[in-house]
Every structure is written in C-alpha cells, then in structure tokens.
Design a protein that fits this description.
By secondary structure, this protein is an all-alpha fold. The chain folds into 2 domains: 179 residues, Growth Hormone, Chain: A (Up-down Bundle); 189 residues, MFS general substrate transporter like domains (Growth Hormone, Chain: A). The protein has 16 helices and no strands. Helix 11 runs antiparallel to helix 16.
Length: 405
Amino acid sequence: MMDRTTKEYAWLVVAILWFVSLLNYLDRLLIASMRTPIKADIPMTDAEFGLLTSAFLVIYAILSPLGGYLADRFSRKWVIFTSLLLWSVVTLITGFVENYTQLIVTRAIMGVSEAFYMPAAVALVMDYHKGPTRSKASGILMTGLYAGMALGGLGGYIATIWSWQIGYHLFGGLGILYAVVVYFTLDDAPGKEPEPGEQQNDFNFIEMLKSLFSSRGYLIILLYGLLGGICVWLIYAWLPTFFQEGFNLSVGKAGVSGTFYVQVASFAGVLLGGFFADKWAVRNNKGRIYITAIAFMVGGPFLYLMAAADLYWIAVLGIVIFGLTKGNHDANFMPIITQVVNKKYQATGYGIMSFFSVLSGAAMIYVGGYLKDIGISLDLVFKIAGIGILISGVVLLAVRPNKEN
C-alpha cells in the first residue's frame, strides 16, 4: 500500500474510483441498449419495460440518504467495496433470469446496491483532495460516469454478436474482479479508517439531521439541486424526441442529436469547470459557488434558445452550451456541499440531495410525457426548463460558505 499522505496516492484514489464509476453507470444502462433482445426472450409490454428503470430509480433515490449515512458512519472504503461487489454479482445474475419477475427483482436489488456507491465515492475524494485540487478531482471522477454512459451502448453490440445474457455475464464478472483490485488498493483517508463493522463513535443521527437542516447554505443547495434536477432529468429524457419531431430527423440522427452533443459537451465542461473553479477558489472562497451559479445562469438562456430555434444548428449550439454548464455543475456540486456541511455529514448531505433530485427527476420524466399527451409541445416545456435552470443558478448565489469549512 502506498503512503496515503502523498499527492500521488490522492490521485490514485481518483483513478481507482474512476473505473468503479464507469461500471456504476455502464451496468445500470445495459438494459436500455439491449431492450429488443431482452423483450424477445422475456415477454413484456413497453410499460413493463419502462417500469424496470422506474423501479431502479425510485429505490436508488430512496436509499441514497442511507448510503450517505453509512459512508459517514463507517469506513468509506468498505461501503464502496461492498456496493461494487453486490451490484456486480447482481449484474452477473441478471444474465440468468428467465422471466419478468426475476428481472424486475434484480433491477430492484441493483438499485439498492448502487445507491450506496456515489455518496461514499465523492466523500472519499473530498477526504483526499482539499484546496486547489478539490474540483478537478471531483470533475475527473464524474468523467467516469460519462464514460459509463457512452459504453453502455456496448450491450447492444454484444447482444447482436452473442446474446444479452453474455453482456451481463461479461460486465458482472469484470466488476467482481475489479472489486478485488479495490479491496487491495483503496483505503480510507488518514484518520478516517474504522475497522470493518466499526462505527464512528461521535456520530449522532439526531445531531446529523439538526446540523444539515439547520444550515441555511445546505437548504439553499437543496433548492438549487431540486430545481436543477427537475429540469435536467426532463431534458435528458425527452431531448431525442424533441429533435426528431422538431426537425423531422430520423430516429438514428435524433438519438445522436439528443445524446452525443450534450454528453460530449458535459465531458468537456466537467474538466474545464473543475480546473477554473479551483483557480477561482484560491482567490475567493465563493469561487466554486460563483462559477457554478454563473454557468447555470448562462446555460438556462441557451437551453431556451435551443427550444425556440427554427434552425437545427442553432438548437445544437444551444444544447452544447447547456452541456458545458451541466458538466461544470457536476464537477463542483460536492465541493460546494463541503463548504456548508459539517465534515462528519458530507456523504449524508450528498445522499439526501440525490434523493430529492433523482425522485423528482423521475417524476418529471412522466410529467413530460403527460404534458405531451395533452397537447403541450416540448418546445414550451423546454423553454420553461431553461427558465428553471436560470433560476437555480440565481438561487445558488445566496449560498455562503461556513467559516470553519
């Protein structure tokens, strides 16, 4: 084991968790890329197929606060290792299911196991990276999620060449093997390493709730995250449909227009946002807050521009600029939380935020479809979302870092 006090090990932690983050998103998104072959083997309606994702999201959202609580109270390394191992085993088992009931049960269990990972991972990165590297480290970690989103499409190719079962066996087995690597290379930051099963003695559940919900800054961040989450989930879910219907594109081109541009821009934004936020934070302790707020105050109007555009290239420009600002948010969200939340409760604070963001976002995916069914155009819905993103940026400006943080 390397010396945990060195800068090299701090960056090794990011590298180790980067691949875990990739697997985190890749494994959950396999089902979307293998929809047709799975439905051919396991009869189900489109509504039942949609329920597979809904069940995952609801359980993931509900248990995210518990995941944060466990990461704050116990060893972050052990929470990460256990989460990775469990969801990888579930991924492997999914390749053996034979009916719909078994499939939805595995999706639910995956929601349970994956909910524990992100709060622990971002908190561990914050433990190792303080000051001028915090946002860069957070941003690099988040690129693992983007890579997982992109590689999730490999499932479709694997299903075409071999079978969808092979895809689940392959990536589940890979995750189990990598869990062994995590076990032997990852460690808690110095001073934060209780033994397996040992809890932090000074952790009080009631005090944690009081500390979080009496913090003006944290409540503002909750509002910011809720507004942003509602808008972002809605946009991501319906963006391909917006391009297909608004510009008469083929399904293939609409899919690329609604995913590729925004994800590539977000990938760039997460790196640029982390770099510039760290630079600004050295000169001003609200630097990360300012750059993230300004980004959404710019991204909102460009999202509105996309929704109002009559020309395809203007719509693409709008979504690219929005993607850059969304990436900036991803890089700086956890570093901002650390500025207002007691260091003992930072993973829990992230988990609670995920609960509100994911649950409200999942609901808005349905609401977007409902509004479309009753004749309200996606143009109008996206314009409102653009205004919501702008407002969330203004809200974030009200956050003041705690002096002790």
